Amino acid sequence: MRYSVFSEQVDVSQVEAKCLEVGATDVKSASRIRQVFCELSAEQVAKLQGYGFKVKEIKSIKTIEVVTPEVGYGVVEAGLNITDVFGAFRSSFTPPLTGTGLTVAVLDSGIRSSHEAFKAGKIVHEEVFSDSDTPDDIFGHGTSVAYLIAGGIHGDINAGVATDAKLLNLKCLNDDGEGTDEMVVAAIDRVCELVENARTSGKSITDPMYPNVINLSLGTEDGGDEDNPVRVACRLAVDEYGLQVIAAAGNSGDKPTTVLLPACDPKVVAVGGLMSDVFAIWGYSSRGPAKDGAIKPDFVVWATSLHMADNASNTAYIVKSGTSFSAPILSGLIGLIWELGRRSFGSHWYVSWYDVEQVGEQVCVKPEGAPVHKDNTYGYGMPALNVMVKGAMQPTVVTTDIVTTMMPLMLLMMMVPMIRT
Asked: Whole-structure pTM over 0.85, yes or no?
């Protein structure tokens, strides 16, 4: 049976040496995440645990299942085109916001890089960590996720949130949309290596090969184990490599403790889903608390009837629903906020969703009657986007209301320097 072996006190090379010493086979290391993967017998597991190592059985993980339009809960066939929402927002500034400087690592089922939405060198790196033999999206999930983050170019009819952001296609799920803890951790380890390489070579944090965000529109049931290998990897990516780790909350609502792993971890930004036609939680959006008591999700954005690119052809588009597609909207949005802040405060200004969480009640909105404080349905709420929803339904009000929309974001920009001191 295959396991992850790690220790908080011992160097990964020493852990690997001990694994080999007890007779482990097919040994592989994720050095930056400090985990060793190997085949072990029950006796070998006991020996390694006797050394004080944590030994965790490798489990499966998969894309968070897409809920089709006919399921209900406010899902409609027409589809909310993200361009209708963010196009006016981006164009309200001169020059228009595009999310330039943001690089998002998409850990998913691959991306159809030949799709028209990913032209102009948008995908800067591709690598396979699953048992697939191609970085292409055969399953039909990662292409849609990537599109919502950064599809198209500014002015396209079909475009995602941050049109000039760059993407890393790290395929950690196979052509059936399934993978393992090991595959996901290996991909996270690679993102951390890219950060390390960028830092060592003196690259700016806005360089295309300097990853800023990891998007995880995947998950599995939360077993309450904080030492799950993926959770451990996510925490290290945040704490030691400065990455923002954003994950879909799951489509398992509306019962408590249904937020999936890794979104359940306190260091991971969990994104729940709203209905696209009504400012209210989607019935299938997973709810907290996490098994360890953490209040989850952290934020909510649209999840239903979203228009996005499809892997069927280079010009194919589709309407899908699920929190898998809420997470990438948040991944792209931070690029617009960050770009706006750099224009106001200089190139060294940086913001993350962890900063936003610290002022969440001031910069997020919820439906009337929802708890004012962070709660297990809406989290902090929707990041200052309710006016954009209104604008998508009534385009004539977008221009006049954009200042109202921006006020919480300007508050955030003024507060971030204080947060960091």
From this structure: yes
